[in-house]
Design a protein that fits this description.
Chain A: This is Carbohydrate ABC transporter permease. The complex is a heterodimer. By secondary structure, chain A is an all-alpha fold. Chain A contains 14 helices and no strands. Chain B is elongated. The model of chain B is unreliable at 1-20 (pLDDT under 50). Classes of the chains: A mainly alpha, B alpha+beta. At the A-B interface, α1, α4, α5, α6 and α7 of A face α1, α2, α4, α5 and α6 of B.
Chain lengths: 286, 448
């Protein structure tokens, strides 16, 4: 086919192919430049930032300095809030994965009355906006004394992470071949053994996708932590948010802080692209 | 053991009809597996829904029944109305633009070898927080074209297409034949005649702001049936004005200065000064006054006020699209991968152009995916909070307001939990069609 194309159409194809490449490169730059701007801004002194644009470092590379990062890591508010982010994100992710797996398995393979209705009820909760729960949960947490604590933030994230977890895992577990489960059962496996030795390993791809999705969701959250944490339990997003009102004056905290807060999600993203994509695709209803 | 053989025995394993208890579980075991999830969902998701609905009918303190007052304020409260208007703008534009870009990127990247790298770059912003994206775009949208990359690019493009006005702060010197004409323009005190040579001297342009092409000014030479003249900077650094209102050596012409001949308030002729400051007007200018219009003296163009009241919402939507176009692209690319190639090839063999193939084959086949992407983004956009909260500066945050932000303000800084609850119930009502759709789709699958 290719060989029989006329010279003209091949020429046109070549030109449009060239245009296409140029277009995609321009768009790609469009997408990269904002992040590069943040990175280079974080590597300049505040006086330089106030005087000129970040692209100045291309002509004056001597402006690059790690001072802002050094100061940031000596700033105890920032370091403790980074730790808080970890203390919030890790439990919130593990709990959602474990509790979601238990329920997903029950919905997929156990018999009990009204099973499908219960499951549909959970599916209905998928799109409930977190905003609906902010005020009621703030009052509830106030009463039981977890308002302002890491525990409160974790609980909220677990609650709103569960519908998606149950939905995703139940659908994945349901695809496990029945024979595998029966064989394990015939070998005398009990309920827990079956769950931990057969279902969890076979469901690993879905569990990984869910885990990464939930991890990024919680790590990147601002709104929930803004309401349910206090100055001692706030994650990095909230700590940085308090500096935004004086944007120009605090740029030496905001730029490196934002970049540090991005490092972990970006590392996770590049390391687990495939799982992340499948999590995002399954989450298209959330 | 016995229960397993019973369960496995009387149902053929191949039958997909029901996944009936392979495990033959006792109900108590099932309950134990479900209990943590159901308790948490009940306490943290279901109970708050009920509470919010009830709370939305009570007044500020929560003691008195308020009927539908809180819902009325959704449409009367100034802040909420702006938020509602902006949310509509968000829901209409953000998902459609992001989906359209995602579609374009997905289709185009299929044709280049480094498509995967491109996708990675566009998809990457999805992994970062809206807070970080907000900080990124505060930098991008900085008003100063020397600092914000958006205005740097915009001013660059603008100045390429419309010449930057070259003479800010120029003004008549002592005993000048020119006087201010209002609005920043200058006009000759008396009318000009053909055959006459006119001098239009000004002072005050900083040497580094003079146009690069400006040459030494040349004294005007009279020509019959024409009005000729020179407009120049009647001042040289270090030498002062020289002879007042006369072209001295080393004084520079105002290259590119616009000159208009005005008769009875109407422009009858116009010219642009050459590099040496000379200009020539036709006979029609006879008896007119010469004016140097204000456009010559404007301050240099400073770009758009991206985060000002009128542009702030479109600007923030831009940053949202930066974050989420990659999501649309990845989902659509996955859909595209499942489109049968033969179908596209067949259309091409039949002589369809690439555009026709795209329009008539690809897009219709992708319609379900496009719908899922657009609906997902709509739900997402309804709840938009972080980006607006971070990017909109205090001065224009009221103009950028959205429902989720207003809910946060009403509920947590203005102590209006009743109204905040009404907003949250309103948001919930908006997603109920999607909820219903999800449940229906799943019910079919579960029942299979």
């Amino acid at each position: 086919m290719k060989a029989r194309q006329s010279l003209g159409s091949r020429l046109a194809e070549g030109v449009s192919g060239g245009l296409l490449r140029v277009f995609l490169i321009v768009v790609g730059l469009f997408w990269l430049v904002p992040t590069i701007g943040l990175l280079l801004s974080s590597l300049r002194a505040p006086e330089d930032i106030a005087a000129s644009g970040w692209w100045k470092v291309f002509t004056e590379p001597s402006q690059i300095t790690f001072d802002s990062y050094r100061k940031l890591l000596e700033n105890e508010d920032i370091t403790s809030s980074l730790l808080n982010t970890v203390w919030i994100t890790v439990p919130a992710t593990l709990l959602v994965v474990i509790i979601g797996s238990l329920a997903g398995y029950a919905f997929a393979w156990m018999e009990f009355p009204g099973r499908d209705w219960w499951f549909l009820g959970v599916v209905g909760l998928l799109v409930v906006p977190v905003q609906v729960a902010l005020i009621p949960i703030a009052e509830l947490f106030g009463k039981i004394g977890v308002f302002g604590s890491v525990l409160g933030v974790v609980l909220f994230h677990v609650g709103f992470g569960l519908p998606f977890a149950v939905f995703l895992l139940r659908n994945f577990f349901a695809e496990i071949p029945r024979e595998l489960l029966e064989a394990a059962r015939l070998d005398g496996a009990g309920e827990l053994r079956l769950f931990f030795r057969v279902v969890m390993p076979l469901g690993a791809p879905a569990i990984a996708a869910l885990g990464i999705f939930q991890f990024l969701w919680v790590w990147n959250d601002l709104l929930v932590a803004l309401i349910f944490s206090d100055s001692g339990s706030q994650p990095i997003t909230v700590a940085l948010q308090t500096q935004v009102r004086q944007f120009g004056n605090n740029i030496d905290v905001l730029a490196p802080g934002a970049f540090i807060s991005m490092v972990v999600p970006l590392a996770v993203f590049f390391a687990f692209q495939r799982q992340f994509v499948s999590g995002v695709m399954a989450g298209a209803v959330k | 053991m016995t229960s397993v053989s019973a369960a496995g025995g009387d149902k053929p394993p191949a039958a997909p009809k029901s996944r009936k208890s392979v495990t033959g579980t006792r109900r108590t075991v099932a309950a134990l597996f479900l209990l943590p999830a159901l308790v948490l969902l009940g306490a943290l998701v279901v109970y708050p829904i009920g509470y919010s609905v009830v709370r939305s009918f009570y007044d500020q303190s929560g003691d008195g029944f308020a009927g539908i007052d809180n819902y009325k304020s959704l449409f009367t409260d100034e802040g909420i109305r702006t938020a509602l208007k902006n949310n509509i703008i968000w829901v209409v534009f953000a998902p459609t633009i992001a989906t359209a870009l995602g579609l374009i990127f997905a289709v185009l990247t299929e044709r280049v070898r480094w498509g995967t790298a491109f996708k990675l770059v566009v998809f990457m912003p999805m992994a970062i927080s809206m807070l970080a994206a907000g900080i990124i775009f505060r930098l991008v949208y900085d008003q100063d074209p020397d600092k914000g990359v958006a205005n740097a690019v915009w001013v660059g493009v603008h100045d390429t297409f419309s010449q930057a006005s070259a003479f800010p702060k120029a003004h008549p010197g002592r005993e000048s034949p020119l006087k201010p004409a209002g609005g920043g323009a200058f006009i000759t005190t008396s009318p000009v005649r053909t055959g006459e040579a006119v001098s239009l001297p000004l002072v005050g342009v900083a040497p580094d702001l003079m146009p690069d092409g400006a040459k030494a000014a040349v004294a005007p030479k009279p020509e019959p049936d024409k009005v000729t003249g020179t407009t120049w900077q009647d001042f040289t650094r270090g030498k002062g004005v020289g002879t007042l209102n006369t072209v001295d050596p080393a004084e520079l012409g105002y290259a590119g200065m616009k000159v208009e001949a005005v008769k009875d308030g109407k422009v009858v002729a116009s010219a642009t000064a050459a590099d040496d400051g000379t200009f020539t007007l036709p006979a029609a200018a006879d008896g007119a006054q010469l004016r140097l219009p204000a456009s010559n003296f404007k301050e240099p163009y400073n770009g758009l006020d991206w985060l000002g009241p009128s542009l702030v919402t479109p600007s923030i939507i831009g940053s949202y699209i930066w974050m989420w176009a990659g999501f649309a692209m990845v989902l659509i690319a996955a859909g595209l991968a499942s489109v049968p190639r033969e179908l596209l090839e067949a259309a091409r063999v039949d002589g369809a152009s690439e555009w026709q193939v795209f329009r008539r084959v690809t897009v219709p086949l992708l319609a379900p995916v496009l719908a899922v992407v657009a609906v997902t983004l709509m739900i997402n956009v309804l709840k938009i909070f972080d980006l607006v909260f971070i990017i909109a500066p205090g001065s224009s945050q009221d103009d950028a307001n959205v429902l989720a932000l207003e809910l946060y303000r009403k509920g947590f800084s203005e102590d209006q939990p009743g109204i905040a609850s009404a907003i949250s119930v309103f948001l919930l009502l908006l997603v109920i069609p999607v909820m219903w759709f999800n449940v229906r789709r799943l019910r079919r699958e579960v029942r299979r």
